[in-house]
Design a protein that fits this description.
The protein is α/β, with parallel strands linked by helices. The chain has 36 helices and 15 strands. Helix content is about 50%, strand content about 5%. It holds the Pfam family SLC12.
Length: about 1100
């Protein structure tokens, strides 16, 4: 809708800064500072230039000189003034990506301001007309009408033109939804469907354009060798059977030379090609006018062009002039040259071909005219097999028995087997070229108006030309002449040429230059398209083709295009090359329709095309029609083209650069994700669908680097790319102060996730303390039903260090939070010893110590780990603990049955733990643990004294451990090795060892240890001893993780229990279930 602007003058400043601003306004082409440097390919940023560029460093000084806008100084630091924004929008240029290098900024802008822009007719209509009308119209359309008949030919043309019309409607909607820079259809598809689809379809469009160049070159050589100068053939056929092979060899030689010449012309200067484009277009228009003039002339004066028939078989005018067996001369009747071709002598008594002897020779007019009634004869199809005679329907003939055909006989034969789908593939390239207008959007005065109007009008015009030509050809020309592909019955003349007026040479010369021009245009456009794809950086191995000469010409891309085009030239058959490029163009058009349909259905806010005559149903119909035509033309070519596009798609997805172009596929993914999240929101998943959705808690160092990268390796091994993975971390501080550090930390985590190939999401929280931040992550990470159900973290190895007093508190509180949230907890101890993703464990065991039931987590985790190639060769062993009252044999049998029903293969062993007295070592270890905790709470020591005190306690603990080991090796004595502790025994033991104690610690045993702590320590020591005996050499040990004490005063003792439980083991995974079953025996 129109908007009225009122410009209010602002009082001029006395310092003259307003004059400087005025000068900048008057000369917008003058750069105010260094030009914005484009991002290098593959940097994750879009290549297209954006007019909303904030050159803060250049403009800030001029902004802040006055006081009129002082209120908005803070906003000016990041946002431009409206006047500056409008100035940039007005001066926004759209240079093609192949010519930026040699365009100086000031000169290009001044030239753009002075050069008149092209309108709809010159800029879109005529280029589309030139690209659509081409070689198929002149060389194959008459043959298609003869083989398929008027009705089926009309159907072929109508379907193909409908396909391009629907594609043009979709393309018009996309092209009018903003500025379309260089790249044309590639740009539209990639920005609408994302870099993967854009790269795949862009390369398919490039291959189609390259093979189109090969087709035009082959058409040029066919016109030259067949209709202009047949004597220029290098390879001559000795027999008629060798003519096809000789023609192919000639096409290859001349085609290669022509390709090299055209490549040199394109390399030397594209401007010459553009200047000749108008000449080539004039040739096309004059040729079409000559065809219509010839059709009108046949209505009242049909041309006298006889065709010779033997019976109902068409004869090629090769080796004879008179269409008769004998002719009357002054000396009587004599045999003709035709007689000599079919008989073994010129005498009337010579033996002749049986069919020749039994049938008469007759002549008919090749072009009887519009009023002759031949229209009804050509209405139906006349498909034929390869090598079949071109016969006229309705002419009486005596059939002859099938004999070995003599290739010397001058019959007109079908060179290939014809059928409807083959003709569709051969014809479709004649309706391509609808993208010519969108490729020139930067040169148009009003691209958003010109592209839809010009393209659709060009399609309507060419569709009318093709449909009318089908009807007129069928109404004017005999069917046998239409099916004569190379005009052999017309003495080697072009069929459409003999119809034209005033001379056949108008069509021959016009079609020759037209195909030459189209070939040059293809060799000019294809390298620039490849250069645009290479410079986008989405296909890494193509980046070399983004470079070129100093003036921006794509030299390397031109070389690759010439090599690919040469493969098409070596095929040497126009009818074989046409279906190949049909596949690539159809795929491109299919994705243009898909892009429009996706954008329309998503209703994204940015989807506001100026072209309003579109609908998603039309786009979907066009997409379906393109897909159907691909398989109709050639199902194996279609599968090959889709395979090529699929491989390119997966390569870009796997190795390509990350791009954010606001594409429709991303929007479609978001919509699908929202729909799926809403569907699975209700209730927890069934046990059969349960898998660990892991929240990985990482710790960062002062440089915001991850402390334990192996934790991510283990997470990826556990997940194997399936399920949800959230990598979380906490920064201590406030967000306003730490936001830059948070961004750097998040980038470091993401890069590490890429190295470790961890597929998941990163979530970093800035909190006032680590404890609250971790709690927030456990509570709020994830979205809807896509929330984690398992927390993975590393064991705090520094929990005993005095400079980190809150490490164990945070750990224990995290355990409590996970338990309260009913989430499973995995704690990896010695995580830096865990294998990396590149390692392969050659064997060993994964030992599971199943002490208490945790919902099946201990069973499920080893199974998931063994799916990964790191752990695949490891065996699984399950140990369970039996008390004195348990039946060990029955427990083992029942556990084996349980594993059988779970479909899990594992060795089973039941370990018996005999009830015995608590050892002196256990009691002393408990006592030292409590005494240490009590001392650190009560004594207010300096840091140095605390470290000395802790070291002494550690030495005492070590000495006690050594003493216990010595006692274990000595002969058993009832009062030192195994004893039940009572108050009297404890007093006696203290008195016995009092003299050997350190004097500073003579009151160390003044406190009585808590009996529950003694029991817990006893369990930890005994279980650790059993685990070390069985699993010390295991690759991984999984243990039930005891729960924290209900009384928070014993948290540090809890850490000591876990330390003792896992002491001496290399790789340990402590597992705590989430309170629900995660594995089931049912299907």
């Amino acid at each position: 809708m129109p908007t009225n602007f009122t410009v209010v003058p602002v009082e001029a400043r006395a310092d003259g800064a307003g004059d400087e601003a005025a000068e900048r306004t008057e000369a917008p082409g003058t750069p105010e500072g260094p030009e914005p440097v484009g991002h290098s390919p593959g940097d994750g940023s879009p290549r297209e230039s954006v007019p909303f560029v904030n050159n803060v460093e250049m403009e800030r000084e001029s902004f802040f000189e006055g006081k009129n806008m002082a209120l908005f100084e803070e906003e000016m630091d990041s946002n431009p003034m409206v006047s500056s924004l409008l100035n940039k929008l007005a001066n926004y240029t759209n240079l093609s990506q192949g010519v930026v290098e040699h365009e100086q900024a000031e000169e290009s802008r001044r030239r753009a301001a002075q050069t008149p822009r092209m309108g709809t007719f010159i800029g879109v209509y005529l280029p589309c007309l030139q690209n659509i009308l081409g070689v198929i119209l002149f060389l194959r359309l008459t043959w298609i009408v003869g083989a398929a008949g008027i009705l089926e030919s009309f159907l072929i043309v109508a379907v193909c033109c409908s396909c391009t019309l629907l594609t043009a409607i979709s393309m018009s909607a996309i092209a009018t939804n903003g500025v379309v820079p260089a790249g044309g259809s590639y740009y539209m598809i990639s920005r609408s469907l994302g870099p993967e689809f854009g790269g795949a379809v862009g390369l398919c469009f490039y291959l189609g354009t390259t093979f189109a160049g090969a087709m035009y070159i082959l058409g040029t050589i066919e016109i030259f060798l067949t209709y202009i100068s047949p004597g220029a053939a290098i390879f001559q056929a000795e027999t008629a059977a060798d003519e096809a092979a000789a023609m192919l060899h000639n096409m290859r030689v001349y085609g290669t030379c022509t390709l090299a010449l055209m490549a040199v012309v394109v390399f030397v200067g594209v401007k010459y090609v553009n200047k000749l484009a108008l000449v080539f277009l004039a040739c096309v228009v004059l040729s079409i006018l000559a065809i219509y003039a010839g059709v009108i002339k046949t209505a009242f004066d049909p041309p006298d062009i006889p065709v010779c028939l033997l019976g109902n078989r068409t004869l090629a005018r090769r080796g004879f002039d008179v269409c008769a067996k004998v002719h009357e001369g002054s000396n009587g009747s004599a045999t003709t040259a035709l007689w000599g071709l079919f008989c073994n002598g010129s005498q009337p008594s010579a033996s002749c071909d049986e069919y020749f002897a039994q049938n008469n020779v007759s002549e008919m007019q090749a072009i009887p005219g519009v009023a002759s009634g031949v229209f009804l004869e050509n209405l139906w199809s006349a498909y034929a097999d390869k090598g079949a005679y071109v016969e006229k329907k309705g002419v009486p003939a005596v059939p002859a028995p099938e004999e070995s055909r003599d290739s010397r006989l001058p019959y007109v034969l079908s060179d290939i087997t014809t059928y409807l789908t083959l003709l569709v593939g051969i014809y479709f390239p004649s309706v391509t070229g609808i993208m010519a207008g969108s490729n020139r959007s930067g040169d148009l005065k009003d691209a958003q108006k010109s592209i839809p109007t010009g393209t659709i009008m060009a399609i309507v015009t060419t569709s009318f030309i093709y449909l009318s030509c089908i009807v007129l050809f069928g109404a004017c020309i005999e069917g046998v002449v239409l099916r004569d592909k190379f005009g052999e019955a017309l003495q080697g003349n072009l069929v459409i040429g003999v119809l034209a007026w005033p001379s056949p040479w108008v069509i021959v010369i016009g079609s020759f230059f037209s195909t030459c021009g189209a070939g040059l245009q293809s060799l000019t456009g294809a390298p620039r398209l490849l250069q645009a794809i290479a410079r986008d950086g989405i296909v890494p191995f193509l980046q070399v083709f983004g470079h070129g000469k100093a003036n921006g010409e794509p030299t390397w891309a031109l070389l690759l295009t010439a090599l690919i085009c040469e493969t098409g030239v070596l095929i040497a058959s126009l009818d074989s090359v046409a279906p190949i490029l049909s596949m690539f163009f159809l795929m491109c058009y299919m994705f243009v329709n898909l892009a429009c349909a996706v954008q329309t259905l998503l209703r994204t806010p940015n989807w506001r095309p100026r072209f309003k005559y579109y609908h998603w149903t039309l786009s979907f119909l066009g997409m379906s029609l393109c897909l159907a035509l691909m398989f109709v033309c050639s199902w194996y070519y279609a599968l090959f083209a889709m395979l090529v596009a699929g491989c390119i798609y997966k390569y870009i997805e796997y190795r390509g650069a990350e791009k954010e172009w606001g594409d429709g596929i991303r929007g479609l993914s978001l919509n699908a994700a929202r729909y799926a999240l809403l569907r699975v929101e209700h209730g927890p998943p069934h046990t059969k669908n349960w898998r660990p959705q892991v929240l990985v808690l990482l710790n960062l160092d002062e440089e915001q680097q991850v402390k334990h990268p192996r934790l991510l390796s283990f997470a990826s091994q556990l997940k194997a790319g399936k399920g949800l993975t959230i990598v979380g971390s906490v920064l201590e501080g406030t967000y306003l102060d730490k936001h830059s550090e948070a961004q750097r930390a998040e980038e470091n985590i993401r890069s590490l996730m890429g190295v470790e190939r961890t597929k998941g999401f990163c979530q970093l929280v800035v909190s006032s303390n680590l404890r609250d931040g971790t709690s927030h992550l456990i509570q709020s990470a994830g979205l809807g039903a896509m929330k984690h159900n398992t927390v993975l973290m590393a064991w705090p190895g520094s929990w005993k260090q005095e400079d980190n007093p809150f490490s164990w508190k945070n750990f224990v509180d995290t355990v409590r939070d996970a338990t309260a949230a009913q989430q499973a907890l995995l704690v990896a101890k010695n995580v830096d010893l865990f294998p990396q993703n590149q390692e392969r464990l050659g064997g060993g065991n994964i030992d599971v110590w199943w002490v208490v039931h945790d919902g099946g987590m201990l069973m499920l985790l080893p199974f998931l780990l063994r799916q990964h190639k790191v752990w695949r060769k490891c065996r699984m062993r399950i140990f369970t603990v039996a008390q004195e009252a348990d039946n060990s044999i029955q427990m083992k049998r029942e556990l084996q049955t349980f594993l059988y029903h779970l479909r899990i293969s594992a060795e089973v062993e039941v370990v018996e733990m005999v009830e015995n007295d608590i050892s002196a070592f256990t009691y002393e270890k408990t006592l030292v643990m409590e005494q240490r905790s009590q001392m650190l709470k009560q004594m207010q020591l300096s840091k140095t004294e605390r470290e000395r005190e802790a070291q002494l306690i550690h030495d005492r603990n070590t000495a006690s451990h050594a003493a216990a080991a010595t006692k274990a090796q000595a002969p058993p004595t009832p009062d030192k090795v195994q004893m039940t502790w009572t108050r009297e025994k404890l007093i006696a033991e203290r008195c016995k060892n009092r003299d050997a104690s350190v004097s500073g610690f003579k009151d160390l045993f003044s406190l009585k240890p808590d009996q529950s702590n003694v029991r817990r320590m006893h369990t930890a020591v005994k279980l650790n001893d059993v685990v070390l005996t069985k699993s010390q050499d295991a690759q991984l040990v999984l243990l039930n993780m005891p729960g924290p004490p209900r009384n928070r005063h014993g948290d540090e003792n809890y850490m000591e229990f876990l330390e003792v439980l896992t002491e001496g083991l290399n790789r340990v995974l402590l597992v705590r279930g989430g309170g629900r079953e995660v594995i089931t025996i049912y299907s």
